[in-house]
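Record 1 of the preview.
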Amino acid sequence: MKKSLFYNEGGSDKVYHIQILPTPDGCYVNFQYGRRGSSLQSGTKTPTPVSKDEAEKIFIKLANEKIRKGYKDMESDD
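->
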């Protein structure tokens, strides 16, 4: 599962990418963000693996937080 968001207002042109990365031990929720066209910063919301259900809750919460801040959906797939 992944989602790409963008924010383009008032001189800002930013992107925010979120992914669920499944592993044999569970899932990670990772993200990348920054100005469009430049190097992106990376991070994770789950330093240790979590269940698929927990990863989906974290993913949805993070995406909704960004949308409330004005980010718009570029693409998504499940």
